[in-house]
Amino acid sequence: MVYNVLSKLVLQDKGAHSIDISQCKSGLYFVEIQTENKAFIKKLIITD
Fold it and tell me: Do you know which InterPro entries this protein is assigned to (predicted)?
């Protein structure tokens, strides 16, 4: 799942091993990665 800086969900693809972010505008995003036992949140910065 990918969230914008306002915590709004902008992309979601459950069960996928990859997500196409090519449609995202430049900015700061947070990517949530969930496994069976853990969840991770990483920052993603997209620039032109």
Answer: Secre_tail
